[in-house]
Structures are given as structure tokens and as C-alpha cells.
């Protein structure tokens, strides 16, 4: 039948046309980043790739290719037996590896000989990555954003969730980053994506949005935990219209106690996180907060964190960076509950800003 080669720009425009997107790289390469919805069929597993790489350098390329070919053949056979035997004749896969196409090409050749219509991504993942980096600014510029601003604990994430539930277009950067975007914001037991995969997740969402309705996004800084936002997105957000979400201080404290319940229930973990604030607030202040936490006085510490640390930093940053913040309509939910956020979201989408 003959293998079909497709460039990265064409491939990302037609990803939905393929029944399966196959990443033939190793597990470690796949974990760092991959094409959207790609499945991992390693032609060489991590340890095998390392072994062949050592053989390539220490012996010679020919011996490495012989050994690698034998291993690849076994792995490809296992993939076919496990994944392909039930595929219909019109199954259309896209395959790729790192750059040169040897690993994905070996798999694609066999699939082609079986009789499937196989497409190889020309230039592999490296070409895809370059295309994504180049495409993010174009996606950003075609969209209109509404930036939800508000001090820590005002319910920005809850409002975004309520807006999404009402069918609005929402870019939840904290969800994509697996982080709550503060010094204390690491999600217990959850690892953040790599920088490259974070950008791929953002790009995947951006390209799925329509340009005729706004995209709601939270007023993030340049980084969410350890991953950075694409500069084009940061610039676009900072120039976009803003909405100011406000909750009373008692409601904000209660909201944070709910959202950070894992810290509230684990004083040792909370104190360890507070250590990160010593360079900002000083050892004496942080030690006093830690002492209160160990005594079970969590709410007063959360209130102090808001008024003494987060609020001054946030307000200074938002006023300096978001040019339309002074004109932001006020959003005042009745309380922190999702029911109140749902009411607010409905009113917002109906065009009633000051609620």
C-alpha cells in the first residue's frame, strides 16, 4: 500500500482523522510529553534503549542496530498481538517516534504490510513540538479572554468550574498544572506535568475553543507551581478584560480550609509547607504560625496568611500587570458554596456583570 508521510502542521490539523495515535518511543520519553490522546507502544523500552545506546557508543552503530532490530521485532510483535488483532481493515493509525522515524517506521512497515492505512509523522515528536510552540501564539490571538481576578480564597476556581458546568469555555490552568498556584499549592500525591506537556495540554485546549465566545481564565502569574505559562498567553491575559470576584474574609478562610483540608488535617505537612515562607515572612513569624498549627489553631493561621502574605502580594501584582483590572466589574456571590457560584455563573453568562 505504501506508507503515507505527513508533516507536523498538517498532522496537528487532522489529528481527529486518525483512529489511533501511536507513540513508538520509550515510556520515559512518552511520560515527558506526547501528542494528544497518543497511546504508548514502545519499540524499545527505557532499559532497552539505554542498552542499545551504550552499544552504539562503545562498540559500533552496526552492532547496535542488529541488537536493536531483534529487540524491536519482539516488542512490535507483542504490540500487534495485544492491540491490533481486533482492528478492522479500515483502521487508520498515525505513528511517530523521536525524530528519525526508525522506531515508528519499523512498526509502520509491518502495519502497512498487513494492509492498514498507516501514516508516519514526518520529523516525529520533535517536529510536533516545534509546531505546537509556533502555534500557541496564533491560537491565543484568535481568542477573547475574560480574566477572573480575586484575592486568594475568593473562589476563582469554583467559579470557573461553575462556568464550565454551564457550557462556557474555560481554561483552568491550575487543573492542567496539577497545582493550586501558591507556595502551599502543591496537590498531595500528584506530580506536576513536565513543562513541555503542560504547554501541550494548554495548546490542546486552546485549539478546541471557538473564537465567537469568550474564554474564562484565572488571573495566574507567569508560573503555576514549577511550570511556566507560554509568554504569548501571559501577555494576552494581562491585556484582557477582567472580572473582580469578592468574598468576605470569613468566607475566604472557610473556603481555604475546605480546599486545603489535607493540610488542615496534617499539622506536620502544613508546618513543612510553611517552611517555604521563611524567606518571605521571616523565621519568627513562620515559627509562630507553626506553633499555632501544632496547637490545632489552623483557622487563625489561614487568616493571617491571607491578610499578611497573600493579599498584599496579589493586589500589588494584579494592579501592576493586568491593565484592565481597574475597570473590572464586581462579582459578589452570596457565599462560597458551589450553589452560589452556579447562580453567579448563570448571571454572568446572561450578561449581568455586577451581581
Report on this structure.
The structure is a single chain. The chain has two domains: 4-132, Rhodanese-like domain (Oxidized Rhodanese, domain 1); 142-349, Rossmann fold (3-Layer(aba) Sandwich), CATH 3.40.50. It is built from 17 helices and twelve strands. It has helices spanning 8-13, 27-32, 46-58, 61-84, 102-114, 124-141, 156-165, 173-177, 195-208, 231-238, 249-259, 261-264, 267-274, 278-281, 283-294, 298-321, 338-349, and strands at 4-6, 20-23, 39-40, 93-96, 119-121, 145-149, 169-171, 215-218, 223-224, 227-228, 242-245, 330-331. The strands form three sheets. The protein has a five-stranded parallel β-sheet. Strands 7-8-6-11-12 form a five-stranded parallel β-sheet, with helices on both faces. Helix 3 (46-58) packs antiparallel against helix 4 and helix 13 (267-274) packs antiparallel against helix 15. The longest helix has 24 residues, at 61-84. The relative contact order is 0.11.
Return the domain count. Answer: 2
Global morphology: globular
Q: What structural class should be given to the helix and strand makeup? A: alpha/beta
- By CATH, the architecture of the largest domain is named 3-Layer(aba) Sandwich
Radius of gyration from CA coordinates: 25 Å
Put simply, the count of helices is 17
Order of strands, widest sheet: 1-5-4-2-3
Order of helices and strands: EHEHEHHEHEHEHEHHEEEHEHHHHHHEH
CATH topology of the largest domain: Rossmann fold
**How many DSSP-defined strands?**
12
Main beta sheet strand tally, sense and closure = 5 strands, parallel
